[in-house]
Amino acid sequence: MMLRLKLDPAKQTLIMVFFDTYLQLTEEEEQKVIEEVREMRAKETDKVMEIINSYERRGRELGKEEGKIEGKLEAIRMVAKRMKEKGRPIQEIAEMTGLQIEEIERL
After folding, report:
1. Is residue 11 domain-resident?
2. Cα–Cα distance for residue pair 48/41, rounded to 1 Å
C-alpha cells in the first residue's frame, strides 16, 4: 500500500514510525493485517490480469478484423483475375475493383 502512495522516502519513514509508535497491534491484529495485505495483492493481481486480458481481447478483435479485410481483398483479386482472363480492359477492372493497375497486371 505504501508503494502505491508514491511517497518520498522521508514521508514513508514518518508514516512507518507513526504506525510503529502509535498503532501497536496484537498478534491477532497483525495476522489479520497480513491476510488483508495478501488479499489486496491478489485483488491487484486480478486487476492486472483484467487489464492484460482486455489487451489480449482487443488484439484478437484486431486480428479478426485484419483477417476479414485480407479475405475481402483476396476475393476482389480473384474477381479481378477472372475479369482479366475474360478480356476486360485493365482500366475498367481497376475502376470496378479499386485495385491498382500494376496489381491487376501482376494477376
Report:
1. no
2. 10
Q: Which long-range contacts (CB under 8 A, 24 or more apart) does 54-62 make?
A: none
> How many C-beta neighbours within 10 Å does residue 79 have?
14
- For the stretch 15-47, pLDDT in tens is 777 777 777 778 888 788 777 767 776 667 676
- The three-class DSSP label of residue 89 is coil
In a domain, 44, yes or no: yes
Contacts 24+ apart (CB under 8 A), 80-85: 80/104, 80/107, 81/107
pLDDT mean across residues, the chain: 81
* Cβ neighbours of residue 76 closer than 8 Å, sequence gap 6 or more: 97, 98, 99
Cα angle: 25, vertex 29, 31; to 5 degrees: 115
Residue 49: which domain range?
A: 25-106
